[in-house]
Amino acid sequence: MSAQTGAASHPPIVPMMDGEALAAFLLGRRPHPPAIGASGLDGYLTALIIGPRFIDPRSWIPLFTGDKAIVAPEGTPEFSAVQTIVANYNRIAACLADFPGAFRPKFDDRGNGVWDSIFWTGGFLSATEHAPRLWRPVIRGHSSTGDIIAPIRALSSSSKATAGDAEMRAVAKAVVDIREYFMPRRVKDARRR
Questions:
Q1: pTM of the prediction?
Q2: Using CA atoms, how far apart are residues 103 and 123, in angstroms rounded to an integer?
Q3: In this structure, are residues 130 and 48 in contact, taking their beta carbons and an 8 Å threshold?
Q4: Torsion angles phi and psi, residue 8, rounded to 5
């Protein structure tokens, strides 16, 4: 609240890009970012959030927006792209922390209850490259993990990229299971920082 006017102060409204604007921005980037469109970005962010360790945003946001976008002036497309990416990261993280049973991957809707998962799974698998050694027990399967990533792997080839409700629920469960598997390690790493 402002002492002079007695009016409540509100945080400024941060301009966000809708899905189409963000997809156009990402497609226009050179070199191309590691994930394409809103669906690919959603998969990428999901893997970062549930993965074995925290990945500093300064190491991956520039892959999508350019090296100087994190300090881009307000009102520029780069500024809006960064704000949109961060908002999506926070949305996914909050959902998985507070309501994991409500999480659903953001596949591209093809209508009639059919989704295209190729960009989401591609983005997800691409993000695992930030810590490949730590992801290995999940990616390859291991006695301690079983094959919890199987639903994601099954939809990662272009010949099997069409998903229905059952596949979407299976991927959502895999995401929650992977998050639970890595959580003790993430907590331990957070205590060290």
A1: 0.89
A2: 17
A3: yes
A4: -70, 140
